[in-house]
Write a structure and sequence with these properties.
With 137 residues, the chain is an alpha+beta fold. It has one domain (2-134): Thiol Ester Dehydrase, Chain A, CATH 3.10.129.10. It is 23% helix and 45% strand. It contains 3 helices and 6 strands. The radius of gyration is 14 Å and the shape is globular. The protein starts with a helix and ends with a strand.
């Protein structure tokens, strides 16, 4: 399972552009980290909401992928984000989790934390729906 998730993640050029990496893979959960690069900041100098959304969506999607059969993929059907605080720090960590698995719909969440040294702060929550699809999308 771990190899399947990491191999798929490595094909995402957006994640490469953002400097994102998979930190952890488990059953129904995936953690992704991304540095807050100068190119990922908004006008106030903190992480752009798009960075939070991108890594949160991917973490949640890959969490869903851990629970579906080999040869299938998932796509986001809808995703909501609540921005709770500015993404100030050195990096963001997105932890995606499956709330309710299903054959047709998989409900997911992701928590985004901004991290500086040993301090972290919850900065965003995502909730959405993933749809299993055949591997040849």
């Amino acid at each position: 399972m771990d190899k399947r998730i990491r191999d798929s993640f490595d094909k995402q050029t957006m994640m490469q552009t953002l400097g994102a990496k998979i930190a952890k893979v488990g059953d129904g959960t995936v953690t992704i980290t991304a540095p807050i690069l100068p190119s990922s900041r908004q006008q106030h100098g903190v992480a752009h909401a798009a960075l939070s959304f991108a890594i949160g969506d991917s973490a949640a999607g890959y969490a869903a992928l851990t629970l579906i059969p080999e040869g299938s993929e998932v796509m986001t059907a809808e995703m909501k984000i609540n921005l709770l605080a500015p993404g100030a720090g050195d990096l963001l960590r997105a932890t995606g989790k499956v709330v309710k698995p299903g054959r047709r719909l998989i409900i997911v969440t992701a928590e985004i934390h901004a991290i500086t040294g040993d301090q972290e702060k919850l900065v965003a929550l995502l909730q959405g729906t993933m749809v299993p699809v055949t591997a040849a999308v």
